[in-house]
TrEMBL record:
Listed InterPro entries: Cyt_c-like_dom (IPR009056), Cyt_c-like_dom_sf (IPR036909), Cytochrome_c_Oxidase_Subunit (IPR050597)
Molecular function terms, GO-annotated: electron transfer activity; heme binding; metal ion binding
Phylogenetic classification of the source organism: Bacteria, Pseudomonadati, Pseudomonadota, Betaproteobacteria, Burkholderiales
Source organism, top-level taxon: Bacteria
Keywords: Electron transport, Heme, Iron, Metal-binding, Transport
Name of the protein described by the UniProt record: Cytochrome C
Length: 267
């Protein structure tokens, strides 16, 4: 009898508890499904219902799409696969060497740039393939490179990548390695800012498919690319991986990392 009395609607404390719980539930539903989606990017273009579906974890296909919704730009159409990194036949290397005569003004006769263009000697095949395809399709911007890549056939790109990958790879020039320790961002990253260590993708510990070899690159080139990723001016990184890393980096860290990989003693 006592239990029935406690959970009776006539019990003022039970009634108040139910009303308070219902009120809190409604409040948090408004916060989670209305207020938070309203301050998120895309709310205005997709509408309230689409935002509620997204907040609830409902598949996007279940929610109606506004005809005015703007799709985010595709950063790259290139799908990286292991076959792109496989050794190329010697005939591709020979043909690539001939094609590379058009690239010597910026990238040097043996893939070592005398300007601020990237060094291509020893670069991973899939890296060169991806970047040339991105230039072709406009996913990476460069007036010169887009013009040069526009007329390249698929086999031309394969052969150029095979040739540059076959050349001796440059390394950082360190006069006193013991006195020039690698920056913390290179070795361990910045976990609290979700910045992975550079060596986890760019060599040293592991090389992620599609991540370029950085040692010996011109310092100004590395600074420019990191700043472009940081600002979003360059956006051909799959799943915004480099943009997410670079956005969390300070200008000083960008300069320090670039100087380290370039072998610049000034860092």
């Amino acid at each position: 009898m006592m239990n029935n009395a406690v959970f009776s609607w006539r019990n003022v404390w039970f009634r108040r508890s139910v009303v308070a719980l219902a009120g809190l539930t409604l409040l948090w539903m408004l916060v989670g499904f209305v207020w938070l989606p309203s301050v998120s990017v895309g709310f205005a273009s997709e509408g309230v219902w689409a935002s509620i579906c997204r907040a609830a974890g409902v598949p996007a296909a279940w929610s109606p799409q506004s005809p005015d919704a703007v799709s985010p730009p595709v950063s790259t159409h290139v799908v990286l696969e292991r076959t792109m990194a496989a050794p190329a036949p010697s005939r591709s290397v020979g043909r690539g060497a001939t094609l590379a005569l058009n690239c010597t003004m910026c990238h040097g006769s043996r893939g070592m740039s005398g300007s601020e263009a990237p060094n291509l000697a020893g670069q991973y095949r899939e890296v060169i393939i991806k970047q040339l395809r991105d230039y072709q399709e406009g996913q990476r911007a460069s007036t010169i490179m887009q013009a040069l890549a526009r007329n390249l056939k698929a086999q031309d790109i394969e052969d150029l990548a095979a040739y540059y990958a076959s050349l001796p790879r440059p390394h950082r020039v360190e006069t006193a390695p013991a006195q020039v320790p690698s920056p913390a961002l290179v070795r361990v990253g910045a976990p609290l800012r979700n910045v992975a260590p550079c060596i986890s993708c760019h060599g040293g510990v592991d090389q992620k498919l599609g991540a370029p070899w950085l040692e010996g690159m011109p310092r100004a080139y590395l600074v420019a690319q990191l700043n472009n990723f940081r600002s979003g001016a360059r956006a051909n990184d799959s799943h915004a991986q480099m943009r997410n890393m670079a956005r969390a980096m300070t200008p000083g860290e960008i300069a320090e990392v670039a100087a380290f990989y370039a072998g610049d003693d000034a860092h």
